[in-house]
Amino acid sequence: MIIAVDGPSGSGKSSTARGVATRLGLRYLDTGATYRAVTWSALEHGLDLDDTEAVAARARALDLGISTDPQRGHFTADGTDVTEAIRDPRISASVSKIATNLEVRAELIRRQRAIIDAAQPTGGIVVEGRDIATVVATDAELKVLLTADTDARLARRKAELAEGVTAEQLHDQIVRRDADDATVSEFQVASDGAVTIDSTHLSLEEVIDVICRLAKEAEAAPRDQES
Ligand SMILES: Nc1ncnc2c1ncn2[C@@H]1O[C@H](COP(=O)(O)OP(=O)(O)O)[C@@H](O)[C@H]1O
Ligand SMILES: Nc1ccn([C@H]2C[C@H](O)[C@@H](COP(=O)(O)OP(=O)(O)O)O2)c(=O)n1
Fold this sequence. Notes:
Elements: E1 2-6, H1 13-24, E2 27-30, H2 31-44, H3 52-61, E3 64-66, E4 75-77, E5 80-81, H4 89-99, H5 102-119, E6 125-129, H6 132-136, E7 142-147, H7 150-160, H8 167-181, E8 195-198, H9 204-226
Parallel strand pairs: 1-6, 1-7, 2-6, 7-8
Antiparallel strand pairs: 3-4, 4-5
């Protein structure tokens, strides 16, 4: 089974997808972390992020280690543990430059699909990002577009970040980044077959409940048709 969760920044994709995977005993893939790891590596190598060829070459050369354990996110880049480093505001501020590089996208989508395929014999995977239902895993059994209004997303991100974050920094991390990311992925309206869940007034547990119920229904559907 593949469950795709797409949506804008701060809508709750990572926490929800981890919770669903834990509850259903599935693997979990944070595709945003793959874009963050390439950003980290490109900066580490002193590359100009506007040099799309050089950045794409770095993405292709990068030895990326990605854990799919929903309880223990762990990422390595060329052998260095970058689990914490890829969450740094410096990476958040630059990652859209990497995510809008179409050659980088092609390389990372290839790797994401390999991870999804490898998870199938174990029961399946919850995959979250911006283009999962529309590009990476169009055959997903369940496709969710997770949304929340901008004020809720800003408030959630504010609560997560260190004290002293300015309104401008928050705006950059949510509104500006979504606008840039939306130039290469469609995550603001639901694709065909996707269910929209607006989490503005739902708790995290409530969103997880809804997705787990939809997953059970999706899993049962083909069997119903066969009988
Ligand atoms: N339904 C919800 N209600 C309130 N807070 C939430 C909800 N879903 C997620 N959060 C919180 O909002 C923050 C951002 O969630 P996250 O999963 O990182 O979003 P995304 O992956 O979409 O950027 C986290 O601190 C998370 O705990
Ligand atoms: N499938 C994906 C996943 C993420 N991205 C881009 C969009 C984001 O700016 C970065 C980082 O994604 P991430 O999900 O970590 O971002 P959040 O801070 O959780 O909103 O990567 C993408 O273009 N396609």
